Amino acid sequence: MTEPMVRFEQVTKRYGAHVVLDGLDLSVARGEKVAIIGPSGSGKTTVLRMLMTLESIDGGVIRVEGEPLTHMERGGRLVPADGAHVRRVRGKIGMVFQSFNLFPHMTAMENCIEAPIRVLGLPRTEARERAAGLLEMVGLGARKDYYPSQLSGGQQQRVAIARALAMRPKVMLFDEVTSALDPELVGEVLNVIRRLGEEHDLTMLMVTHQMGFAREFADRVCFFSEGRICEEAPAEDFFRNPQNERTQAFLRAVLEAG
Q1: DSSP 68
Q2: Residue 65 CA to its chain's centroid (Å)
């Protein structure tokens, strides 16, 4: 299939007079892993939040597997989508946030079965079997009955990844998932994401400051600045030979700081 899994078509986002995304065009192929990098305020996280419909769009269209996300076709034209349409299309997408966002009063297992039972209507037994397998996959099978307060930050983030996967998404979004972690815990989370990429046919978009991981893991890197993609290229080409002066300055600054 040649249809992109995700496509932004001239998507604009504004906060008052401030333009966060300026006519964004971006296509992500089925199974592709795309790293999104750039300075703070460049629109990176907004891209992910719009895909999860946590932010509205002010212009353009977002498509998932060819279907408009926040619009629907009526009489040959696009109109704002109803809630059922948005929920169905958004159901193809899972997101992991930098701040974990686990329910503190629920165990790791309970965090992972809540949405499959309530949203997907999965029987509790089946939801628990699915969650147990996912917690095992992220290395936390023995801690399935632990509460978030009993887990390290890296373990909480791995539970958050398992919870997102429990909904069987086709697209996974990662928003700075290691930025809230102590440095020694970063590797355990990146290893889980690395394994996901190797073993599952997921389309992945990752906003990250981990340049080494982006270079190794991503198929393509997009550098955002002032609401636009200034440069994009296969990961190795991007880091070895950046073409844009703004990209070169950003990478220099990141490498010097790191």
Answers
A1: E
A2: 16
Q: Band of the pLDDT at 184, cuts 50, 70, 90?
A: confident
What does the DSSP assignment read for 146-209?
A: --GGGS-HHHHHHHHHHHHHTT--SEEEEESTTTTS-HHHHHHHHHHHHHHHHHS--EEEEE-S
Under 8 Å between Cβ of 108 and 159: yes
> Which of 132, 218, 140 shows the shortest CA–CA distance to 174?
218
Nearest to 171, CA basis, from 4, 13, 2, 10: 4
The tokens for 62 are 């977002």
- Taking the C-alpha atoms of residue 170 and residue 205, their distance in angstroms, rounded to an integer, is 11
Name which of 147, 144, 151 is nearest 130 in CA terms.
Answer: 144
Spell out the residues 6+ positions from residue 209 whose beta carbon is closer than 8 angstroms to its own: 37, 176, 179, 254
Domain boundaries, the chain: 97-168
Residue type, 84: A
Q: What does the pLDDT look like over 72-98, one tens digit per residue? A: 989 889 999 999 999 999 999 999 998
Q: What angle do CA 47, 238, 11 make, to 5 degrees?
A: 25
Rounded Cα gap, residues 101 and 46, in angstroms: 18
Alpha-helical runs (H) found in the chain: 44-51, 83-90, 108-118, 124-137, 153-165, 183-199, 211-217, 235-240, 245-257
- Read off the pLDDT of residues 198-237 as tens digits, 9 standing for 90 and up: 888 899 999 998 999 999 999 999 999 988 999 999 999 9
